[in-house]
Amino acid sequence: MFEVAELGHKIKKSDYEAREPELRTNLLLLQEALKEAKFPVLVLVSGVDGAGKGDVINQLNAWFDPRWLRAYAFGVMSDEERERPEYWRFWRALPPAGQIGLYVGSWYSRPIADRVNKVISDAELERNLTRINAFEETLVDDGALIIKFWLHLSKDAQKQRMTAMEKNPATRWRVTALDKKHLKQYDKFRRVAEHTLRNTSTGDAPWIIVEATDTRYRNLTVGQHILERVSARLQNQPEAQAPQPHLKPIVAPEVGDKVSVLGNLDMSRHLPKDKYKRQLAKYQGELGELARQARERKVSSIVMLEGWDAAGKGGLIRRIIPAMDARSYQIISVAAPSDEERAHHYLWRFWRHIPRGGNVTIYDRSWYGRLLVERVEGYARQEEWMRAYAEINHFEELLTEHGIVLLKFWLHITKDEQLRRFQEREQTPFKQYKITEDDYRNREKWDAYEIAVNDMVERTSTEYAPWHLIEANDKNYARVKALRIFSEKLGLALDR
Amino acid sequence: MFEVAELGHKIKKSDYEAREPELRTNLLLLQEALKEAKFPVLVLVSGVDGAGKGDVINQLNAWFDPRWLRAYAFGVMSDEERERPEYWRFWRALPPAGQIGLYVGSWYSRPIADRVNKVISDAELERNLTRINAFEETLVDDGALIIKFWLHLSKDAQKQRMTAMEKNPATRWRVTALDKKHLKQYDKFRRVAEHTLRNTSTGDAPWIIVEATDTRYRNLTVGQHILERVSARLQNQPEAQAPQPHLKPIVAPEVGDKVSVLGNLDMSRHLPKDKYKRQLAKYQGELGELARQARERKVSSIVMLEGWDAAGKGGLIRRIIPAMDARSYQIISVAAPSDEERAHHYLWRFWRHIPRGGNVTIYDRSWYGRLLVERVEGYARQEEWMRAYAEINHFEELLTEHGIVLLKFWLHITKDEQLRRFQEREQTPFKQYKITEDDYRNREKWDAYEIAVNDMVERTSTEYAPWHLIEANDKNYARVKALRIFSEKLGLALDR
């Protein structure tokens, strides 16, 4: 597939000078228009050594207005990065809507290098590519425009480029021992790159191979292509935003008995006070000890609490924390997103707060808002929440593969019990602030929420991150059950 | 000074149980009111080992609604933290306006521990405390409420607490070898702590010493004190926001010749084209080589460009970057702050983007906006920009002390030259977008800006971070001069 980029494309200096000012003007106008758009643009500049990836980035930095542009590079991982899933660094480096991110090096760099250097097998490369496709699809589905350039040089051209650079004192330093090693690996690199490009050139994010022998041709081609792709996308926005007709909403079965995961729970479960006190102390003690070990061994856990209003999330949190060292946990309550968060994919705000190794993070509500309140209230369009099942499963897979212990609890109460608790809250001074008209409004949509919860549990209960349904009509029973599960799972993870 | 906290304060269980629900209700109501306030609250919980710092944090986490609360702890520095000034981690951990940050460990922890362990001298401790005071003053001046608790135990009480914890299997793990070492160092620790508290107990951020022998007394005291301080501040807000009468605006001398740093520049300086080309290539080459060395040695630089509209900041940036590896620099153009940024001190957004070691960061406009556009346009109140001189000097001191090479350029052009360039821009297709009515409006305020610039240069040109004034009526001259200075200063820093 690289043959198309070995044809000897060239642009004369005079032609370049005639065309460059117009291109530059258009790129600046484009950027002005983009600022108002509700999507980000990612420009990846990859390719063989010596093809001028850095020069292209420098040229783009000079053509564009740097105010709405940001270049990202990924060096050796910092320890903060190593303590989180690999994709954390990429999520950190996403441009907000209306802006352009330039990538010199990207999520492709490590897998390609690792395969060339035999650090990973063909099967592992494949797995990496699947991951890349899922990542890019997540972004594209959300509206991002991803433009991927591969700058190509033939083996001879690469050799010549290096020799020329070595002769020039000003550029000699750029030719490192590593580059020479890479030149020797040219054939292998080409095979791995070809395989990678073929398997990640999707309809939504295709690769553009650019012949890089002639720098004028290379730069003009890159600039011109960005201009065309972004312009097309700007003119085409409504289409990308329209609902996708092949997606159908998920509805509960309409015939037969109402069978659902929530319906199957035994809501009469309870725990007498004396047993509760004993078991609470027992599991708090266990958890404290396990959390301490986890901290030493840098094993993180995420405890995620979802449930009906007044199901007892706050009370459960207050029972978890006495067991813990105040230095080792944080509680994240999910409120309305900030404007920076709104300018990114909805998962971005959760990636942002992935803790460093060894911590316990307790979420009071979570990314599942997409599948619950956003679905039921219509804040997310149907195709947005429909694809969120897969996005969330993928997200959680990355977390758990990294070794994070992920516990997802649904605290379930009956509709009657909720009413009782609302009324009780209205009588209790320090609980009154918790109860608002919204709570009663949400209650009216109980059935719609129930369908959403059932769908959520069915579609996001995975082997690596199952839902734990907690019968919570009796608070004592619920608290002990959740603490016990947390303790067991953390213990298992530490035994591994 | 710790004697007041060795009097044997105690609260009976029945009294505690009678008072706690009301305190809790009030804390929740307080938090509700705080959400609307335009200031953050910082609660530091410090003190001797075994005094229950973590328990207090856990209790506050249980009393408050965790949604508007965040606990911060500072462990061993990550490499990302080590590559930046020490205060970066503290600036990262500031709550936004309307929220409460709880600190278990803080900017006090390292200096106190280092002095006790003789890692630093008395003089160095003093220096650290001065720094702490400057940091807290910066936050308080901006409206933050800082509440600092010191939990105290007498030597005997500390010993008893440890013995009791060791006897209980559930808490035994909490008593580490380190704690035992600390017990031995009790007297020394007490002396250092007393000195620290005395010298950082300012009117704006006083220390509160709490006797911690009785946990009920300790917790109730802390909760009650937070309630009182935040309530008082909420009722008192207008006063804190009022202009401070002892501050006087800085004005240019009104008699005699108009003498100013800008007025003294020789604006006729220029560089012929052939010399320009030669020198540009020379300094670009030097810079490229130096930036490469700096990257290897993790020496960062910050190049900050300020200047009149159309003074040539963009053109200079385009002349700097061809020398650089695209992986080693980033350009940050300062646009309007996001809502997260607006909810913090104005310097927060700049701390946020301090680069990791070895990078070049180019600022197109900077934190000096506070002293220029915000002053002239009245976006900042007088006392805000008046205190910004000291805040910025302090900020830059922390940067340069960490080894960051900080270059501040003011690109100066005359009023006539600016008009000529505006008109030229209007004729050039790819420059038209740059020229707006705002530019002409700003031009009308030339004199006010000139006063602001003169004040800025005089008051923020420090030994560690001097201003470099660039005569920029001739672009060639300006570019070469700036590149030469950058190259020289970076070279000097690498020679050290």
How would you describe this protein?
The structure is a homodimer of 496-residue chains. Chain A has 496 residues and is of the alpha/beta class. Chain A folds into two domains: 2-241, Rossmann fold (3-Layer(aba) Sandwich); 273-495, 3-Layer(aba) Sandwich (Rossmann fold), CATH 3.40.50.300. The first copy, chain A, is 52% helix and 12% strand. Chain A contains 21 helices and ten strands. In chain A, the strands form two sheets. A five-stranded parallel β-sheet of chain A has the order 2-3-1-4-5, sandwiched between helices. Chain A has a five-stranded parallel β-sheet with strand order 7-8-6-9-10, sandwiched between helices. The longest helix of chain A is centred in the middle third of the chain and has 24 residues, at 273-296. Chains A and B meet through helix 1, helix 2, strand 2, helix 12 and helix 13 of A and helix 1, helix 2, strand 2, helix 12 and helix 13 of B.
